[in-house]
Amino acid sequence: MNSHKNITLEKWSGFAKGQQILMIANEINRVKNILEKNNSDDIRSSYERALDLVDITIQDRKWKDHLKELLRCREFIGMLYCERNFDLNNLLLNNLVLLSSEAYNLLNKK
């Protein structure tokens, strides 16, 4: 079941940009953990949840200045969903976090 399908734009908009990015990144990161189990259904579900979150993020007005980047991110997730190139999965994860300095700083604390 896709747990993010029921999240409302109103609720999602209440999260800071960094939190939103980290929740999307979490779904992308799950793929790395699932690889060890080699369960393609779980991999597909993680990408679907990431797509759901990107879709609702695109609707959030606070991202209007980064719409192009979010659409590219969505396209990239769709490509990974179809092609399963897991090296590119890590590249996406790293670049996604760069969309928000808050998310980047949280992940790169020393």
Walk me through what this model shows.
The protein has 110 residues and is an all-alpha fold. The chain has one domain. Helices cover 73% and strands 0% of the residues. The protein is built from 6 helices and no strands. Helix 2 runs antiparallel to helix 3 (40-59), helix 2 packs antiparallel against helix 5 (86-97) and helix 3 runs antiparallel to helix 4. The protein starts with 8 loop residues before the first helix and ends with a helix.
Fraction of residues in helices? Answer: over 70%
Order of helices and strands: HHHHHH
Distance between the termini: 37 Å
- Count of helices? 6
What is the number of strand segments? 0
Uncertain stretches: none
Instruction: Provide the gyration radius in Å.
Output: 13 Å
Which terms summarize this structure?
73% helix; 110 residues; 6 helices
Write the layout of secondary structure elements.
Layout: H1 9-13, H2 17-35, H3 40-59, H4 67-83, H5 86-97, H6 101-107
Helix pairs in contact: 2-3, 2-5, 2-6, 3-4, 4-5
